[in-house]
Amino acid sequence: MAKPDRIWWSHPPAILTYGIATVSIAGALMTARWLEDHLVGAPVALFLCAIMLSAWFGGSRPGLLAAALSFLSFKYYFVAPAYSLSVDIDQAPRLLLFAMSALFVWSLSSAQRRTSETLRRARDELDVTVQELKRLNEALLIENAERNRAEEVLRRSEAFLAEAQRISRTGSWSWNIPTRKVTWSAEHYRIFGFDAAGGPEPTLKSVLKRVHPEDRPLVRQILEGSIRVGWQFTFEFRAALPDGSTTNLLATGRPLSKDSGEIDEYIGTTVDITERKRGEVELAKAFSELKKSEAQLRTIIDTIPTQAWCWLADGSSEFQNQRWLDYTGLSTEETRGWGWTKALHPEDAERCINKWRKIHASELAGETEARFRRFDGEYRWFLMRVVPLRDEHGDIIKWYGTNTDIQDLKRSEDALRNTQSELARVARLTTMGELTASIAHEVNQPLGAIVANGEAGLRWLRRDPPDLDRVHVSMEAMIGDGNRASAVISRIRGLAKKASSQKALMDINDVIQEVILLVEREMQVHVVSLRLDLAPTLPPVLGDRVALQQVIINLIMNSVEAMSTVTGRPRALAIFSQPAEPAEVIVTLRDTGVGIDAAIADRIFDPFFTTKFNGIGMGLSICRSIIEAHGGRLGASPNVSGGATFRFTLPLAERISHD
Ligand code: ADP
């Protein structure tokens, strides 16, 4: 505790106190000497004042010094015999009185000084005590505020705990062993079906009564056993509640020991796990259902009449169904990763794997065809289809696919292709039958010219001298006519030949020109004018020349026929060719014929659809399948000013090679 500050004179230095005593007596002496003659009794009063001042200021010892000095001075200067310290007997009472007065003043002043010193000290101490009390009070206030805060925090955490217990259906308890007093949390009351607010406080006995009768012996046994040996315990049991319901509870408890090691309390929790139990049962049921349906699914996957498989996100194989394994004779292990490619036909392997890589990179569903080796070594065609399986972020987790045996389909496709090509040939022959007269004329005309030129040449030869220049001209004309007839015949042979389709690079303009040679005469006969507007240069297309010739002949012959009944306006056929985006050529035939009625517009490409008396309705259907087999499109539309426009596209060879 800090001592309070004191004023400087409460403990003045000794030299100062004695000095003041001496000086005050000297001062009193000089003043008394000066006043001696004027004022009787002044020396006594002055000396007493000096003693009083010295004792009051310096304490008892300086006061005593002042009294002694006063006495001596008084005797020496003011009591006879003057200027001597010897005492006359008759002056003795006066001196004694002075001494007694001096001592009385000294003792009074000393006592007063001591008293005021004591009072001052008492006041100082009181001040200190007051300060101390103030500090204590402040500390108490702080402590009180802290306690209030702590109590608030405690209240809040108790409320949180109670809420947490309520939400989690967890009750807590403690059991004081010496007093056998059990304390339950509110939730514990509720778990055992007691009224938490206001009802009678449950006892251990009443709680045990709420344990399901079948579990009660076991609960007693565990509790008693654990407490006897001081073990922790965790066990499940059931409670039979007053409302008739049965709940599943999980009890845990652990002992708390005193410093001596003696167990004096158990604390623990009881959790209502009815919902969890129910969930577990349902989960187990769902799991077994899942297992069952997974087994069923597996059986289905293995027995469906198609091969099914699954690839990992990186494209390597994870699973092949039994049908796939049975077909190839490979084991599951052998097919893992890229092992499945062992079953691919060597000619298809590279293409098939490249195609799969493309599908994998595109992250989209895709398909390809490939031959797979059967366990006995035979290869069959399969259509492989694959679709990605994505997670909720859209990332691919797996790829699922099927292999469908299309061997028989392929065979039928081949047969169909043969039939189609035979049909196309028959159609060509039919068209040529229609063109017979024109073609005969086309051939006859050069033949007649050859004969005429031959005769003329002979005549020039018979001349004397023979006119060899003229003969030369005749011979050249003969060769020209011969070539022309030969070209017509070779076109006809080409169209009539039963050749399998062979694709080659060609300029579609050349094909148009070749066809014109055959139908020119027919157009002349039907008074149809022809306008050719072909693109000066066209990139090559990859196609079957004869088939494309057939398409163009068919379209031209249809136009000629459609214009043959038209009167009153010119019969004109315009043929255009032009390049177009994306990487294709377009060939357009526009006529001024009868046009296409809206009612039949979408049927004219159907097989056997015809509006002609002698028609068979296969021409346009064959043309469309030829164009589509080349990767192009064929369509028709009526012209605003009458007549019809037919247009087909063909992809450029460069585009096909990219695909
Ligand atoms: P066909 O010539 O034997 O009738 P197509 O398949 O060639 O068989 O033609 C089917 C039908 O399409 C024709 O009967 C005709 O009605 C219509 N058609 C074809 N080309 C034209 C055209 N240029 N103008 C108008 N109608 C046409």
From TrEMBL:
It is found in: Membrane. Residues 543-654 form the Histidine kinase/HSP90-like ATPase domain. The chain crosses the membrane at residues 15-32, 39-58, 64-83. Keywords: ATP-binding, Coiled coil, Kinase, Membrane, Nucleotide-binding, Phosphoprotein, Transferase, Transmembrane, Transmembrane helix, Two-component regulatory system. It catalyses: ATP + protein L-histidine = ADP + protein N-phospho-L-histidine. Its EC number is 2.7.13.3. It is a multi-pass membrane protein. Residues 159-228, 295-361 form the PAS domain. Pfam families: DUF4118 (PF13493), HATPase_c (PF02518), PAS_3 (PF08447). Residues 431-501 form the Signal transduction histidine kinase dimerisation/phosphoacceptor domain. InterPro entries: HATPase_C_sf, HATPase_dom, HisK_dim/P_dom, HisK_dim/P_sf, KdpD_sf, KdpD_TM, PAC, PAS. PANTHER family: PAC DOMAIN-CONTAINING PROTEIN (PTHR43304:SF1), PHYTOCHROME-LIKE PROTEIN CPH1 (PTHR43304). It comes from the Bacteria. This is histidine kinase. Its main location: membrane. Residues 116-153 form a coiled coil. It is an enzyme of class 2 (transferase).
